[in-house]
Amino acid sequence: MDSGPAHPVTLDARLDEPSRALWLVKWLLAIPHLVVLFFLWIAFAVLTLVAGVAILFTARYPRSLFDFNVGVVRWSWRVQYYAYGVLGTDRYPPFRLSRTDYPADFDVAYPERLSRGLVLVKWWLLALPHYFVVAVFTGGAGTIAYQAGDQTWQVALGGGLIGLLVLIAGVALLFTARYPSGLFDLVMGLQRWVYRVLAYAALMTDEYPPFRLDPGGPEPVPAPGPGPGAPEAGAGATPRTAPAG
Questions:
Q1: pLDDT in tens, 201-228
Q2: Within a domain: residue 226?
Q3: What is the pTM of this model?
Q4: Which residues constitute the domain of residue 181?
Q5: Residue 99, domain member (yes or no)
Q6: Cβ atoms 66, 205 nearer than 8 A
Q7: Where does the record place the region Disordered (predicted)?
């Protein structure tokens, strides 16, 4: 029996059968989403600051703000998955914050309590090593760090290693009409890393993102532990009897 996701941040996707050439114009088709997301990310930045103050005084992330901000990231992930971050489906993303049956999903388990002290340092100091890794993945085209100068948040927009791999996948689609499954798994692992760091930096969880690549479409789950009545190692072995003298 599985014990559930290994991390409170879950990024899932199902690879459809994208068409050969639609990916060439998906960025254009996604413009309505990008316009809406521009304003949603402004709201995300403001509400994250409000949530940070709330956590500092109450150790709780207000649930309504949490659900909204998770919804903004979920919306962004769907658009990325469709248009430029994976190219894993031709199904147009819904204009919704809530979860749907779309083949790409993002979620964060709601934390009942968060550390008051961590809220002051995790988004800029503790997450710093991950920012360097994410910069390689995204090529600096986007950042998930809080920019103190202009007080804005940004999410990775592609480029870097992810952008290169997605371009290779697009070329493969163009000539073979197939998305290489191994390439899909790798891109998903990189995106999963980015979004875990985003959730941590945005104060949604206190669980530090692992320095680990978890490839594949479905969110990995830990191996089930032994049952309550399972014998310990060696406990169930048949005792050996001494040979008759």
A1: 999 999 999 999 999 999 987 766 555 5
A2: no
A3: 0.84
A4: 9-201
A5: yes
A6: no
A7: 213-245
